[in-house]
Design a protein that fits this description.
The protein contains five helices and 16 strands. It has a 13-stranded parallel beta sheet, with helices on both faces. It has a three-stranded parallel beta sheet with strand order 4-6-8, with no helix packed on it. The longest helix is centred in the last third of the chain and has 13 residues.
């Protein structure tokens, strides 16, 4: 999504690119480019640290997508962003070495039309009020954020009714220990990705309520030791990635109930050495990505019961050759 934002700013059309290397979007901008603030649907802003006293009032009422890039440990959202009554996509990226404390996100609480949100390298704000307000939200992405425990407040404070939510991505949130159980109320969600979250030890017991889920990615959750039995109720699941879950020891005994599963990525599961006996009942399974731990079992299954199964064995490499491939 970040690359998409960058490319869009470089193309011709209804897009505006603003760079403020010295952290100033002052009245100078309004005086020199006052005619440019209307007619744009995509706005990209690159700045350093900012405070509201640095800002001028610019009307971007037609903007539908905002990409905000900054380098700071603390950041105040420009108040003129709150005039974007057509805003549907919000992408906020912090490029500094430390997570940033973000001020002003509450100004978007009345924006019920927002469909997609991406937060990168931030101290996560309390999500309770936003989940109650953003009723049109379809995609929610959190990457390299801290204070992720605030997401678990959803269990205590709200019902998490997001009727249009289709996709949630949580990546490299180093202090996230568990997912909020209320996430299982999002029964229409199609993609759930929780990756590189090393402290997560278990998933919600009711995960199987996500009956519309087609993709589940749990890669590199190093402390995850088990999958909830209810995962076998994900009747629409087509892609499951448990790669690099190094503490995962077994798959649920009723794993064969994933009747639409097509791809299973289980490389790097060093302690998962035995497959469920009924795994041959996975009639839709087409692709297996594994390593030496389960290589022989899958090749045996392919030879005896699933001749069309593609088994890709990934070998560990201890050099840098892969950088040039």
């Amino acid at each position: 999504m970040r690359d998409l934002a960058w490319n869009l700013t470089r193309q011709d059309g209804e897009r505006l690119f603003i760079r403020g290397n010295e952290a100033r979007l002052t009245s100078e901008y309004r005086n020199t480019r006052k005619d440019e603030s209307s007619g744009f649907q995509f706005l990209s802003i690159h700045t350093g640290a900012m405070e509201n006293r640095d800002l001028c009032k610019i009307d971007f009422h037609e903007v539908e997508a905002l990409a905000l890039f900054f380098t700071a440990s603390e950041y105040s959202l420009p108040t003129f962003l709150y005039s974007m009554r057509n805003l549907k996509v919000v992408m906020i990226h912090n490029y500094s070495s430390k997570r940033a404390l973000l001020h002003g996100l509450e100004g978007f609480l009345s924006f019920t039309q927002i469909k997609s949100v991406l937060l990168e390298r931030l101290i996560v704000p309390s999500l309770y009020e936003y989940c109650m307000a953003w009723e049109s939200l379809e995609k929610f992405n959190v990457c390299l954020c801290e204070d992720s425990k605030k997401m678990t407040l959803l269990d205590k404070e709200c019902l998490l009714k997001l009727p249009r939510m289709e996709e949630i991505n949580v990546d490299h949130c180093s202090d996230l220990e568990e997912l909020p159980g209320k996430i299982c109320n999002l029964t229409d969600i199609k993609k759930l990705s929780v990756t590189n979250c090393h402290l997560i030890q278990k998933l919600p017991d009711d995960l199987g309520r996500l009956r519309s889920l087609k993709l589940l990615r749990l890669s590199a959750c190093l402390s995850l030791s088990r999958l909830p039995p209810s995962i076998c109720n994900l009747g629409e699941l087509k892609f499951l990635d448990i790669s690099k879950c190094s503490r995962l020891k077994y798959l649920p005994s009723e794993f064969y109930q994933l009747s639409k599963l097509e791809t299973l990525d289980m490389r790097g599961c060093s302690q998962l050495k035995k497959l469920p006996e009924a795994v041959t009942k996975l009639g839709s399974l087409k692709h297996i990505i594994c390593d030496d731990n389960t290589k022989r079992q899958w090749l045996s299954i392919k030879a005896s019961a699933m001749p069309k199964l593609t088994v890709v064995v990934v070998e560990e490499r201890y050099n840098l050759d892969w950088l040039f491939n």
